[in-house]
Amino acid sequence: MVLIGGIISLYYSKINGIAIVGCGLIGRKRADAIADHRLLIGCYDISNDSSQLFSKKYNIISYNSINDLLSDSNVNLVIIATTHNSLASLSLECLKANKHVFVEKPAAINYRELDELLKFKKNTNCKIHVGFNHRHHRALLKAQEIVHSGKIGDLMFIRGRYGHGGRIGYEKEWRSNEILSGGGELIDQGSHLIDLAGLFLGKFHLVRGFADTFYWDMNVDDNAFLTLRTKNGQTAFLHASSSEWKNIFSFEIYGRTGKIDINGLGGSYGIEKITHYEMLPEMGPPNTYSWEYPFPDNSWKVELEYFFNCIEKNIDSSSSLENAYEVLKIISKIYEGVTS
């Protein structure tokens, strides 16, 4: 398990200028998360109207094409926040143009799309990070600290649930279009659960589960159920749902000498809270330690700062293409009905 996080620096000698591709909600979240807004200099979206509105909001350049953006020598880092079907191809174009890349999860619509990107990555000095922001929530960072300290002993299993109830017209949004998204709830919120489970337990060698459509009238899944096991038998039992009528995030980590219980992500998911249950030698009721974070979600900012520092220190991000490849490989096995 890798402990992430670190000192936040507001000065970057190796970042000249940042451009954002994809001017929707996530693009705006990433723009707002850049601590030094002077670094943000441009944007591009296939919708010219969206790009123009974005450029006016942040007082930056709106490029006429992706080629115009990539040919701008003032830009050396690109944040890609588009629909899933263009994430991998755009990432490859940016790396070939000698730009650092921050690409939103899941980085592609399936693991095969990452093959060429992984090969090219070996021949470039540019850094690439896949945006799994949940790793950088306060409670998840605290959980990594507790696990890393050995306070709950060797890890045994994880139980995770993540879901929302959708909204009127949800079945008509791009996430419900398999061509654009690569799938439904499994690749959307489910990818976060798989990523977090792998962060704590490592690589999974046995994959069981299924994804199905129970409620929404769409051709992608609205619920996914997974059981994942490592070579050592450590197990993750995960459920992602878009028919969860009360938004939920619940992530429980069980060790031989204690348990970590994380609930909420802020906003409609409830106050972010982590509880550490410390098992006593005589067993019985455990010692209990709790932390609550009733603050605005800062994971978007912390994750960007983490990647910026990776560039400054010339180290690879822990949220790597290789990690995204493993997440997508699990997702593809479920969608293709191939278990191992």
Description:
This protein is α/β, with parallel strands linked by helices. The protein has two domains: 18-133, NAD(P)-binding Rossmann-like Domain (Rossmann fold); 138-296, Dihydrodipicolinate Reductase, domain 2. It is built from ten helices and 14 strands. It has helices at 25-33, 48-58, 66-70, 87-96, 115-121, 138-149, 178-181, 185-201, 299-313, 321-336; strands at 18-21, 40-44, 61-62, 77-80, 100-104, 128-131, 155-163, 206-212, 223-229, 235-241, 248-255, 258-263, 272-278, 287-293. The protein has an eight-stranded mixed sheet, with helices on one face. A six-stranded parallel sheet has the order 3-2-1-4-5-6, with helices on both faces. Strand 1 (18-21), helix 1 (25-33) and strand 2 form a beta-alpha-beta unit. The radius of gyration is 20 Å and the shape is globular. Mean pLDDT is 94; it is low at 1-9.
CATH architecture of the largest domain, by name, is 2-Layer Sandwich
- Please give the alpha-carbon distance between the first and last residues: 23 Å
Q: Strand-and-helix sequence, N→C? A: EHEHEHEHEHEHEHHEEEEEEEHH
**Radius of gyration, Cα only, in angstroms?**
20 Å
Low-confidence stretches: 1-9
Approximate strand percentage:
15-25%
Rounded mean pLDDT is: 94
The helix content, as a percent range, equals: 25-40%
User: How many structural domains does the protein architecture include?
Assistant: 2
Question: Within the CATH hierarchy, at the fold level, what is the topology of the largest domain?
Answer: Dihydrodipicolinate Reductase, domain 2
CATH secondary-structure class of the largest domain: Alpha Beta
Please tally the helical runs, counting DSSP H or I stretches of 4 or more residues: 10
**Alpha-beta content class:** alpha/beta
**Form type:** globular
Biggest sheet, in brief? 8 strands, mixed
Give the CATH H-level superfamily of the largest domain: Dihydrodipicolinate Reductase, domain 2
Q: How many beta-strand runs?
A: 14
**Strands of the largest sheet, in order across it?**
8-9-10-7-11-12-13-14
